[in-house]
Task: structure prediction
Amino acid sequence: MGRPSTAEVKRRLVHASGSGMPLLYLLGLVEWRTLGYLFVFLAAVVSVLELLRLFGGLEWVVYDELTREYEQDNVAGYALYVYSQTAVALVFGPHIAVPGMLMLTIGDPISGLMGSAPVGELKSARTLAAMFAVCFVLAAPFVIPVFGVVAGGLAA
Result:
């Protein structure tokens, strides 16, 4: 396993920062419905930024630094990330949504830092096992039955 690039580490830190939203709920700072509204607002902001980036000539250094080559002419991963968290917050209750969000914001960056694979190929067994273990630990406090925790880890 090679050492991740500085840009990759920065991307993964941005990814992990998304944990802040579900943490607002877990810490009792916002109610679940309010968190859903915050996600809708964030999705609207992201949509405007992506429209400006893709069609309006918005060229911020942060986009050059944190987007991958294939995202230059497509909706960037951070936007898809926000859209997916918004959908999960609106469709599911916190007992399902919060562990899913934490798996996305913590489990995925950990596996990404451990190693990547070319598009269409599986990551190494070691990386997949580590991601499963992290996702298992993240889901355990929310999903009591072992089956649910195992299924959540496998799905992640």
